[in-house]
Amino acid sequence: MAQAATKREARPASRKESGKNSVSLVEKAYQQIKRMLFLSELVAGQRLRYQDIAQKLAVSQTPVILALTRLENEGLVRSEANKGFYVPQASLDEARELYEMRALIEVFLVQRTARSISQKQLDKLAALQKEHASIQGASYPRERLWCDARLHLTLAGFSDHQVGEIFLRQLFDRLYLMYRPERLALERMQETEREHQALWEALRAHNPEQAAKILRGHIQRGQKHILEGLQREVKYRNSFEPWV
């Protein structure tokens, strides 16, 4: 006698599993929107219609709204009553304040790192510096900016100060939205390589004071270049007159 085949009924997702799926969808939306911001697919002044974003990311609107709320809490987008979410314009005052905070946190962390950095960690930084220097172009390459961020955040991670590293990562997210390639002069590429190498030498010598001095100057010169780029943009926007 042939044995009757039995069908296993599909087990409904548990509340715990459903919660995990919701979290993963929010995280997916968050990472994708953040990527769109950094690649300038979403630009300053643009209204963020969560219906359109949800359709593009193939998710429902709820994860997109939650992701945008998270990005707003991080200062990457803003919202207004009856207008919704939008990408804010970079301002000179905000840029100055972000750089001030970056200097305070990153200089503190690099002094901790300089006291205890290992040869393996020095080798890791040297490899990142080599990768950074290899990225060239007729204009300032976007990939070079990402590599620069990885280098600095890797260095911060060696400090063994988790809270400081988290704060610095959040600052970098906001700063690197301002670091659009067109805002940076090409001579900054050569300056950056010299400064990175000098910092590496100070770290290898386990000299916290020298590392702090070099990094502080590096941050200040980066601030000077980005503020000059922002000022050029503001001047252009204020002087622009349409031809019709």
Describe the structure.
- This protein is mainly alpha-helical and 244 residues long.
- It has two domains: 17-86, Orthogonal Bundle (Arc Repressor Mutant, subunit A); 92-239, Four Helix Bundle (Hemerythrin (Met), subunit A) (Up-down Bundle).
- The protein is 69% helix and 3% strand.
- It has helices at 15-38, 50-57, 61-73, 92-116, 119-134, 142-157, 162-178, 187-204, 208-239; strands at residues 47-48, 78-80, 84-86.
- Strands 1-3-2 form a three-stranded antiparallel sheet.
- A hairpin with a 3-residue loop joins strand 2 (78-80) and strand 3 (84-86).
- Helix 1 packs across helix 3 (61-73) and helix 4 runs antiparallel to helix 7 (162-178).
- The protein is globular, with a radius of gyration of 23 Å.
> How many DSSP-defined strands?
3
Class of the largest domain in CATH? Mainly Alpha
What is the spatial order of strands in the main beta sheet? 1-3-2
H and E string = HEHHEEHHHHHH
Task: Please give a quick description of this structure.
With 244 residues, this protein is mostly helical. It is 69% helix and 3% strand.
